[in-house]
């Protein structure tokens, strides 16, 4: 079966990580015109910009802090001027840090919630009048949201919020023909978790039923499925991409 995504237009809210890069690459390969955000100048942003420009189909990159309401307004206006309409929206802005509840500062809590959760609300609300009937909104959470982890209360709370928000949005937007789903990656061997020590990587690989860490392109493949009509009767779902770790308490 074909994905039939050629000619569609997508907004990818991303970060300076390999998962965002994999999502953008996969969509471009399918013939999608992509607007993608990045957080800060650097090698990752430069690579993203080059790839979008090489697509020569009107794709472009925008630097934006999507936890800031005014930045989201400016971003969406630029996308509106370039695209007019959207078929696909991916919310993948994310920050992660480690702090016990005793050490967790209010500033860190708010920054984590604003980047991981509030950004999904801001972007979704701002683009709604551009998303076409049959469109797909895909939010990136984390498998940790279901099981928790020491030192990650702020991160897991935010990602669990993304799942809850998605469940409500699917009911609000279903009458408009818009699907809203979640992908929940486990430990991916790059991106946010790319600084794991060899011992940590081995431990997480052991916990997975498949005996290895995930790859960024495997997250991107799930997003392609949810963006396509192959998932036309799927909404409000959370798809784990964790290699079978599931609810193992060892996290």
Please outline what is shown here:
The chain contains eight helices and seven strands. It is an alpha/beta fold and 251 residues long.
Characterise the protein shown here.
The structure is a single chain. This protein is of the alpha/beta class. The protein has one domain (9-241): Rossmann fold (3-Layer(aba) Sandwich). It has helices at 18-29, 43-54, 69-83, 106-127, 144-147, 153-173, 198-207, 216-227; strands at residues 9-13, 33-38, 60-63, 86-91, 131-140, 179-185, 238-241. The protein has a seven-stranded parallel β-sheet with strand order 3-2-1-4-5-6-7, with helices on both faces. Strand 1 (9-13), helix 1 (18-29) and strand 2 (33-38) form a beta-alpha-beta unit. The longest helix is centred in the middle third of the chain and has 22 residues, at 106-127. The model has no long low-confidence stretch (mean pLDDT 92).
